[in-house]
Amino acid sequence: MSAIECLDLCKYFQQGDSVIKALDHLSVAFEQGAFVCLSGPSGSGKTTLLNAIGGLDELDSGEVRLDGQRIDNLSKSELADIRLHKIGFVFQAYNLIPVLTARENVEFVMQVQGIPAQERHEKANAILQEVGLLGMEHRLPAQLSGGQQQRVAVARAIVSKPKLVLADEPTANLDTRSMEKLMEQFVALNQNHKVTFLIATHDTRVMAYAKRQIKMVDGQIVADETR
Amino acid sequence: MMNQNLQIILRIAWRNLWRNRRRTTIMLVAISLGVWAMIFMSAFMRGMVDGMLVDGLNSLPGHIQIHHPNYVDDPNIENSLPEPNEQLRTVLDGEAVTAWSARVRVPAMITSERESRGVMLLGIDPEYEPQLGFGNSVIQRGRFVADPGEQGIVLGAKLLETLETDLGKRVVIMSQDPDNNVADRGFKIVGVFKSSVIADEEMFVFTGKETVQTMLNIPALVSEIAVNGQDARDVETLLQQIRAHDSPLQTTLPWYELNPYLGLMANVMDGFVLVFMIIIFLALSFGLVNTLMMAVFERVREIGLMQALGMKPTTILYQVMCETLILLALGLVIGNLVAVVTILPLMDGIDLSSVAQGLQMAGMSTVLTPSLTTLDFVLASSVVIVLGLLAGFMPAWKASRYRPVEALAKT
Q1: Structural domain boundaries of chain B?
Q2: What structural domains and CATH numbers belong to chain A?
Q3: Which of A69, B131, B380, B381 makes a 20 to 30 Å CA pair with B87?
Q4: Do B309 and A56 touch (CB under 8 A)?
C-alpha cells in the first residue's frame, strides 16, 4: 500500500468563459520515504495537487488517501487533525505568524499538538541550531530577512517529524547557499526518518536532489522519472 | 492539550490586539466610556429613586400605615381609629419595628395676622414621632413639640415666610370636628423647621396630639398609625404580623400601596437600569463588530496558515472570541475603575437646589446622592460580556469558516 494515493483527481476553475483544468483526471501514488519534485509551468496544477493531498482544497472529483485513509471526504476539523499530526507545510511566501517570535513559530505546531513545554523548547532549540537561527529565536518575523523567515518556516514544518512534508516553491526566495543548506536538511530528514517530501518547484537545482521527478502540464502528469 | 491550546490562543489573541495599537486603544476607550456611562448613570438613577423613596417614606408615611378602612379614600376626621390596643402595641414595640407613631392628621386652615393657607395639621407625640416622621427636617429656630399636650405650634420656614409671621407670634388653626362643627384654636409659634423637601415646609404644621384631640373633640382617636420596619423594601413579614390585628375599623397598608407611583418606581428600577445599559452597549457594539471584522479581514491569510498548520476551525473561533473577551475585560476594568473614581467624590450628594421646584414636583429631594451598588457593577459587566461576545461571534464565526486554500491565497 502506498503512503499517498491520488485517484482520478479533478479540479477545475472557471476563469471568464474558459475552464482551467488544474487537475485533470490525475492519478498518482507515492511510497513512504519518497523524495519527489513536481515541476511544470505556472498553472500546471503543482500547487493544486499539493493542496489536495494536504486537505487544504476541495476536489471536484477523485479520491486522496493517506496511509490508506481516505481524506477528501473528511470534515474541516478532521482534516485539521490530519494536517496537525501527519503533514508539515512549507509555502512559497514565508507564511509565519507575525505576532509570534521565531521560536514561538517553530513551537506553534507542537503546542497545538499538546507537547509539553520542556520537550518543545528542546526540539525547537535543536532545529533552530540546525537551520542556523539559534540566537535569533526571539525575533519577530518582521525582524528577520526573507531567507531567515523561510528557514523558520522549514524548521516549523519538520520539527515534529511529520510523515509527509509538502513544500511549495520552498527555495524561491533563497540564495544558493541557503537553498543547499535547506535541501540538505530535507534529504537528511528523508533518509534518517523516512519522511516523504513532495516539493513543487521551478528550480532545477532543487530537482537535482529528487529521487523522483514528476512533470505536470495542464493538470496532467506528462513525465514521471525515478532515479 | 487543552491547556496548551489555551496558552497559544491567549498569546496570539493578546498580541493581535496590540498589532494596531491605535484601533485597539480607541475601541478600549469606547468600551470603557460605555461601561462608565452605564454605571455612572445607573448610580444616579438609582440614587434618584432611592432619594425619592427615602424622602417619600420619611415625610411621615413610614413603611406601613394603619387606618380606618375608609381613611385612604376619604382622609376625614370621621374616619379616625382608636389608639393602638395592648395586642397591637406588643407587635409595635417588638424587634421588627424600628419606630411607630399614632398621630392625628387633619386638613386645616392656618391664619396669621396677614395671610391664610391650607395646611396639614399633625397632632403628634414627640416621644415617638421624630424617629419616624420628621426625618427630612431639622429645627431651624425655636424648638420642636415638647409633649402630647403641647400648646404651641411648629411651622416650616417656607410657610412662616408665606404667612409673613415669625417665631413667638400667634396663628389660628381652623378645622372641622366629627360633627362638622368648626373647631379652631390659637397657637403660639414655638419652632420653625427646615426640610430638604420644600413642599413639606409649606404643608405640615406640628403640635401636641392631645391638644388636637381636644380641639377636634376626638378623645383617644387618631387618624393613622405609621410604622417603620427594618427595611422599606422588605415589609411583608411585618405587614402580616400587624394585619393579624386588623378589624372592621382598622386596616393596614404598606407604603407601596399607599403610594403606588413610588412602589412602581422602586420595582421597575432594576429593569430600567438593565434596559438603559443594553441601549448603551447596543450603540457600542456596532463599533465593536466593525473593529473585530476589520481585524479578521486584515489577517485572513494568517488564519488560513493556522488552519493549514492544523488549528481546528473551533480553535480559530475561540481565538477571535478570546480577543473580544480580552478587549471587553480590559474595557470593563477601566470603565469600572473610572466610574468608582468619578462617583466616590459625589457620594456626599449634589446640591440641586437651583432646580428645586422641578425636583419638588417629582417628589425628590434637592440633594441627589448617587447610589453605587454591586448589583449595577454585576449588571453592567454581564451586559458587556454577554452582548460583547454576541457581537464578537460573527467575525469569529467568519474567521473559522474560511477555506484554508482561499485564505492562504489572500493578499
Answers
A1: 2-56+263-409, 63-258
A2: 33-47+76-226 (3.40.50.300)
A3: B131
A4: no
